[in-house]
């Protein structure tokens, strides 16, 4: 009895929320908290040379992960890496065009699929990422939770098929319509490889994993069930079998009504919310099933002021009846003012 009480009181705040505990002050972290809005991030990226070199330099990737923890005292650190490292480990070419974003070799049919490696052949390539996790689990403060992550199969597939980011994921939808077996084989390979990738992050010290499905919103009806819910369910189930007690956060961005029942259908411990839903609506329809994360508009980090304070308070209050992790609805943008991050955190911790 004494032991369990002690565990409860010293358990990290994020893990308590993920276990379903409502806290008066919600724990807080921020998507893209290590990013271009921070001068110290830009300096370390310059030292690494470019973005991908930074991702694969374990010491510097750990350094940028730690920068926002030192500066702001967030309750969680997220591994610094990118969802597109997994396709690269599977054999895709990957590069970043400054000011434009990622470019990859494309997959248009069976040949592209055939050229990819198997789910178990990714670890040599990803070894520096696992090393970053090991460094972080040594160096983070005791109270800070380390989050690992991967892209969801659909979102990663949209980049692998189109070779770049696309506004409507048109090429991926086209391949699904024209060659379903190839499309589904890509989703299956990514599902299996993601299980292996996240599993290795957990072995290296990740305490929570998050699955980013940034383009889930373009999957409708039965497609949402087959290519957003089902892969998230398989990944979550495998992680829970292999690593009992490791919580999983799902982020089906822009899912709208698809947020309803997402946790039950997939088994995730927490659903991350974007700005297509209001906190008030999500408290009623999503938080009833467990922990939610979100969902301040990233633009407040640019504009600041009383609107930031008011909106932050409204979100904390809307979710106060249940488990909640405060976050933005999407990543902080490079034009954000680092001072506004202080204002957001001070507001959350003083409501
Ligand atoms: O949240 C974090 O701080 C952890 C690190 C992280 C990055 N990308 C670093 C990054 C995470 C979790 C991601 C996820 C990611 N990457 C997603 C899913 C989440 C989302 O934002 O929707 C996607 C779709 C990607 C692919 C990707 N990476 C794109 C489209 C871009 C270019 C857009 C941009 O913001 O420049 C990236 C680059 C990227 N990934 C940057 C960072 C910090 C900026 C690169 C730089 O420093 O120039």
Outline the structure in words.
The protein is built from 17 helices and nine strands. Helices cover about 50% and strands about 10% of the residues. It has helices at about 1-10, 15-20, 40-50, 50-55, 60-70, 85-90, 110-115, 125-140, 155-160, 170-180, 180-205, 220-240, 260-265, 280-285, 300-305, 305-320, 340-350, and strands spanning about 75-80, 95, 100-105, 145-150, 210-215, 250, 270, 290-295, 325-330. Helix 3 runs antiparallel to helix 5. It has one domain (about 10-350): Alpha-Beta Barrel (TIM Barrel). The strands form two sheets. Strands 1-4-5-6-7-8-9 form a seven-stranded parallel β-sheet. A two-stranded antiparallel sheet has the order 2-3. By secondary structure, the protein is α/β, with parallel strands linked by helices. The site of coproporphyrinogen III has 22 residues, from strand 3 and strand 4.
Characteristic terms for this protein:
seven-stranded parallel β-sheet, 351 residues, alpha/beta, 9 strands, 12% strand, globular, two-stranded antiparallel sheet
Number of helices: 17
User: Which CATH architecture would you pick?
Assistant: Alpha-Beta Barrel
- By CATH, the topology is TIM Barrel
The tally of domains stands at 1
Largest sheet: 7 strands, parallel
Helical proportion, percent range: 40-55%
Number of strands: 9
Radius of gyration: 19 Å
CATH class category:
Alpha Beta
């Amino acid at each position: 009895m004494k032991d369990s009480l002690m565990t409860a009181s010293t358990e990290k705040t994020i893990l308590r929320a993920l276990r379903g505990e409502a806290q008066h002050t919600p724990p807080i972290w921020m998507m893209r908290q290590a990013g271009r809005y921070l001068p110290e991030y830009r300096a370390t990226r310059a030292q690494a040379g470019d973005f991908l070199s930074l991702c694969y330099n374990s010491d510097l990737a750990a350094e940028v992960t730690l920068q926002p923890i030192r500066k702001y005292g967030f309750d969680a650190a997220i591994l610094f890496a990118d969802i597109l490292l997994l396709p690269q480990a599977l054999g895709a070419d990957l590069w970043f065009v400054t000011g434009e974003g990622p470019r990859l070799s494309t997959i248009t049919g069976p040949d592209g699929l055939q050229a990819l490696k198997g789910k178990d052949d990714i670890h040599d390539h990803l070894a520096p990422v696992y090393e970053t996790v090991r460094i972080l689990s040594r160096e983070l403060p005791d109270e800070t939770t380390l989050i690992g992550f991967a892209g969801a199969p659909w979102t990663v597939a949209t980049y692998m098929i189109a070779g770049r980011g696309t506004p409507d994921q048109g090429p991926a939808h086209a391949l699904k319509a024209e060659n379903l077996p190839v499309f589904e084989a890509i989703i299956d390979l990514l599902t299996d490889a993601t299980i292996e990738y996240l599993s290795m992050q957990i072995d290296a010290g990740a305490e929570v994993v998050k699955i980013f499905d940034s383009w889930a919103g373009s999957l409708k009806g039965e497609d949402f069930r087959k290519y957003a819910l089902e892969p998230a369910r398989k990944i979550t189930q495998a992680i829970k079998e292999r690593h009992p007690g490791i919580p999983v956060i799902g982020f089906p961005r822009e899912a709208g009504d698809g947020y309803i029942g997402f946790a039950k259908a997939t088994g995730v411990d927490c659903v991350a919310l974007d700005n297509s839903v209001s906190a008030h609506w999500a408290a009623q329809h999503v938080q009833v099933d467990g922990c939610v994360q979100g969902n301040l508009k990233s633009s407040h980090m640019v504009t600041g002021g009383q609107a930031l304070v008011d909106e932050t308070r409204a979100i904390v209050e809307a979710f106060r009846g249940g488990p909640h992790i405060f976050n933005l609805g999407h990543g902080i943008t490079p034009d954000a003012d680092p001072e506004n991050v202080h204002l957001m955190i001070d507001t959350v911790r003083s409501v």
